[in-house]
Amino acid sequence: MKPLNQVQSRTAVLPFENIDTDRIIPARFLTTTGRAGLGRHAFNDWRYLADGTDNPDFPLNKDAARGCRILVAGRNFGCGSSREHAPWALLDYGIEAVISSEIADIFRSNALKNGLLAIVIDADAHRDLLANPGSELVIDIAEGSISKADGSKIEFSLDRFARHCLLNGVDQLGFLLDAEAEISAWESRRAADPWAMERAA
């Protein structure tokens, strides 16, 4: 994972509610444990026509949405089955942040663990972003804010551990490896005096 401090981009909007993980990445594409190449299958059954050509009616196929790294989605985004392939597909597609008024808990957890910023905002701010695709936003992870072109800000919250991992570009394993020296020191102290913690309690 690379460190993620800010995301600055125009927004692409998928206004539909209850977009589940099978819609994000259909189950038939879950035959790989690698991330590379999954982006071409993101939203596959919406994105392509039966002959494999782009569906001109799909919002992300519009010229205005191309290159956008912030996705504003309808309520209850990422519901359904648990699969890490869903955030992998979005990241490989080029999406760095998803914003909604409601994001399914398991999807949001998987997203944040894999470097995809998943942000929940209040319903009024969400409605405004849905109604204005192409809005230029700056998401500041450390500050917990989304700055709009008019200078106004939308606040959001992130779990402290998730924020640390995003800012430092580490996943859960990387976090543990960074603390290897401290863990080893604790284990050495514990081995030397195994009853120390019980006495302290």
Describe it for me?
- By secondary structure, the protein is α/β, with parallel strands linked by helices.
- The chain has two domains: about 5-170, Aconitase, domain 4 (Alpha-Beta Barrel); about 170-200, no CATH class.
- The chain has helices at about 20-25, 45, 85-95, 105-115, 125-130, 160-170, 170-180, 180-190, 195-200, and strands spanning about 5-15, 70-75, 95-100, 115-120, 135-140, 145-150, 155.
- It has a seven-stranded mixed β-sheet.
- α3 links the parallel β2 and β3.
- The protein is globular, with a radius of gyration of 20 Å.
- The protein starts with 5 loop residues before the first strand and ends with a helix.
- Residues about 175 have low confidence and may be disordered.
Question: What's the total number of strands?
Answer: 7
Cα-to-Cα separation, first versus last residue? 39 Å
User: Which residue ranges are poorly predicted, with pLDDT under 50 across at least 5 consecutive positions?
Assistant: 173-177
H-E order:
EHHEHEHEHEEEHHHH
Side by side, the strands of the main sheet go: 4-3-2-1-5-6-7
Mean pLDDT: 90
Main β-sheet: number of strands, strand sense, barrel status?
Answer: 7 strands, mixed
Quickly count the helices: 9
Quaternary class: single chain
Radius of gyration over C-alpha positions, nearest whole angstrom: 20 Å
Structural shape: globular
Q: Structural class per helix/strand content?
A: alpha/beta
Helix fraction bin: 25-40%
Number of domains: 2
Level-2 CATH architecture of the largest domain: Alpha-Beta Barrel
CATH superfamily of the largest domain: Aconitase, domain 4
What is the CATH T-level topology of the largest domain?
Aconitase, domain 4
Beta-strand level of the residues, as a percent range? 15-25%
